[in-house]
Write a structure and sequence with these properties.
The structure holds 2 protein chains of 2 kinds. By secondary structure, chain A is an alpha+beta fold. Chain A folds into 2 domains: 29 residues; 126 residues, Immunoglobulin-like. In chain A, 25% of the residues lie in helices and 38% in strands. Chain A has 2 helices and 12 strands; from the N terminus they run αβαβββββββββββ. Chain B contains 16 helices and 2 strands. In chain B, a hairpin with a 6-residue loop joins strand 1 and strand 2. In chain B, helix 4 runs antiparallel to helix 5, helix 6 runs parallel beside helix 8 and helix 8 packs antiparallel against helix 16. The longest helix of chain B has 36 residues. Chain B is globular and about 70 Å long. Chain B starts with 6 loop residues before the first strand and ends in a 7-residue tail after the last helix. In chain B, 59% of the residues are buried. The chains are: A alpha+beta, B mainly alpha.
Chain lengths: 174, 567
Amino acid sequence: MAPGAWWEEPVHPLERAWVVIASLIAVVFFSAMMLVWHALGQQNVRGRAYRVDPKAYQAEVERFVQQYKAGEEAGQPVVAPPPGSDVYMLAQRFRFYPILRLKAGERYVLHVASIDYLHGFSITQPHVWNLQLYPGYEWVIPFTPREPGTYHMACNDFCGVGHEMMLGKIVVER
Amino acid sequence: MAQPAEARTCPVTGFRVHRAAEDLVKANAVAAVVALLLGGLAAIVVLFTRWMGAFRPETFYQYLALHAWNMLIFWIIFFEIALLHFAGSIMLNTRPASPAAGWLAFALMVLGALMVERAILTNPLNHLSFQPYPPLRGTPDFYLGTILFAVGALLGVGVFFATVHRAYREGTHTGPLPLVVFGAFVAAVLAVATLLVGALVFVPAFLWSAGIVPELNPFLWKVAYWGFGHPSQQINLAATITVWYLLSQLTVGGRTPSEKISRAAFVLYLVAINLGSAHHLQTEPSGALSVGWKWINTGYLMHLAVLGSMIHAFAVPGSVEVGQRLRGYSRGLFDWLVRAPWHNPAFSSLVLSVALFGFLGGTTGVIAGTEQLNMKWHNTTAIMGHFHGVVVAGTTLAFMGITWYVLPLIFRRRVVGERWARWQPWLFGIGVGLLVLAFMQLGVRYGLPRKQPDIFRFRGLPLAFQWPAEVYALLTVAGIGGLLALVGGALFVALVVATVLFGKRLTDDELRREYAVPAAAGNPGHSAKELPAVPGTFVLCLVFAAFFVLMYLGNYWNLSRAWPIGG
């Protein structure tokens, strides 16, 4: 099975054609597409993030809840901030706090941070998208809830036994 | 020095087989199969919990950890060390450089594995999942076990390098390394880099767990963790492809259409594949990891490695086609494939492994690793779909395939129940394939979270919710697929154990008659100029490319319908 002087052997035209095709696919689709989507697409993981002291963040979320509180459900405050405003969510073992009530088609700026462990911020049912949360990092990212409905959240990064109880909710109204 | 009992010449391959190497291959392969059995038993709990909520969440987390460590780490790495002893010593006709070091490596790996198993089994409320991100904290013996296992594996890799060196020094091998050893060499280099980065994360975690270091930065730890976690899968990738080339040689006398291109593809892995770590960090807070960093890693540089894989996607089936055409199956485009040795479980394992790995595992790896698309995939069951496509349908099935040669050629026993063995790859491959497809649909379309044991009741909490009916139907598909895979896996373990214990011993004559490598492989006289063209493979690859691009654009279309974010 000694290959001999393999570096001198010619490459068959069919294989050469495949290498060219594969290279083009890799460059045009897999690499350029990400940039194109940054320019033209509406869904990008593009925001800002800050290191944040968990206690300070918790106080900030509490101020937000007090300011726009509109009711209560399942022992959690339901918060209805005005369109265009900053909305806050806090992730901790084992809850997403508070419940949000938003207007469909309006833009908001989402602030979300974990105050203890890694968590998965996931708008799950119906499925929208996921963001990774770290303790001590505050995500700041604008978003627009499009279709009205009730959106359920479930943590999707293991955060200890009890992880299966970490649920949340966002209501989007017309 | 060389006594008659110390080495033999394999009647099938002509390799000089030293007993020291043979024993190390056997020991590591047996440990691998034991781990496969344990991981498979743990899979029962995982499967029935996700399918129908059969076990309590605590039990699920515990057995999920057991399943992951046994399958992804112990089964695969023990098998890879066996592969390195085979490639370094047997394929280069030399004695292992230091059998004693090989055995020390094996002992360390067994000890480390046992410590991890014990840590998971005895701390049901304090165990960690496979991604043990701080501040989640395991017990010190858990981290110590992983460190011992890694040190053992590193030593095993060192024995491989020393053995290759010995082969050249003593002249048992001259000229370039054979392609299979070259691939194993690349896997070994990746292993060294990976295990060193592993030390960077597990040593501090051990010190932290033991109370010596007060605190770990969870963000830096996770970034560094994937410097270990992703490359460790690249070792598997390189090893899997190496086994594919070996299987194509053993089953049909295959030859890669171009040694140059195949080797260049392996080198692309060395250059670019570790950047794949960024795939796991796509939805991290940007600012902490910038958009540019993500794009450079997973975009331009990473795709050098994807290119490597796409080249193998041509060269491996191309190798089979060359072998078959040299054997005379040269009519039309696909005569070589239709009239292939499908009765040989090693061959059907090879075909299923390549097809499932390519279409399911490989494409989804690129898609899930694309910056924006990752928002739909991250931490959903679609990720489980991806890695089961890669390491189960791909790596595990390939390793199972080569085992049908390890049993007669190394253990020198006739496979017990050969008729059952023919069905094994199909049961396992189709089962995993169904599981993978269902998981991907559940994840991307329905957002079903991974590592979630209680999606049916959510412990009856006020915020509990119901899934649409399609989710339950897809869970049944995944469940049936998983069950088929379990049966296929159990059949594999049963046949292997029965063969090693009770298989009929084969004489040299029987081996030569029944396992002969098809003629072309033993005939290195063919230079690339004389090899037949591979038009069938080219057509298959065009189909694959079209599928790949459609899947990729389809995922962007799916994303475009989600809520705008980041604008």
